[in-house]
């Protein structure tokens, strides 16, 4: 059998070495807010594993720690700044919807 070789196909390798997002000395815990806050988006959502570059086990531990911190009120469930901006914008348009007497 004939195997076709692809001489022009080259794999791209990144020369810049990235540090892993979680060091071995870092403890994944609900009390470590500086570590946990790196894995939450601006809107307050937990970022995916692909974005975080974490292993499956690390992502599970981060998710559990974030949820525990939210329940204990260390972290907010939502980012309140966006909520206030939305409330202010709806207040301006609410005046146009009222009936004139």
From TrEMBL:
Q: Which UniProt keywords apply?
A: Plastid, Ribonucleoprotein, Ribosomal protein, RNA-binding, rRNA-binding
Kindly give the PROSITE patterns that the UniProt entry links to this protein. RIBOSOMAL_S18 (PS00057)
Where is the protein situated, by its record's location annotation?
Plastid
Q: Has the keyword Ribosomal protein been applied to this entry?
A: yes
GO cellular component labels: mitochondrial small ribosomal subunit; plastid
Sorted alphabetically, the Gene Ontology BP terms of this entry are:
translation
> What is the superkingdom listed in this entry's lineage?
Eukaryota
Q: Which GO terms describe its molecular function?
A: small ribosomal subunit rRNA binding; structural constituent of ribosome
Entry's NCBIfam families? S18
Q: Record's family? A: Belongs to the bacterial ribosomal protein bS18 family.
What's the name of the protein? Small ribosomal subunit protein bS18c
Species of provenance: Dioncophyllum thollonii
The taxonomy runs: Eukaryota, Viridiplantae, Streptophyta, Embryophyta, Tracheophyta
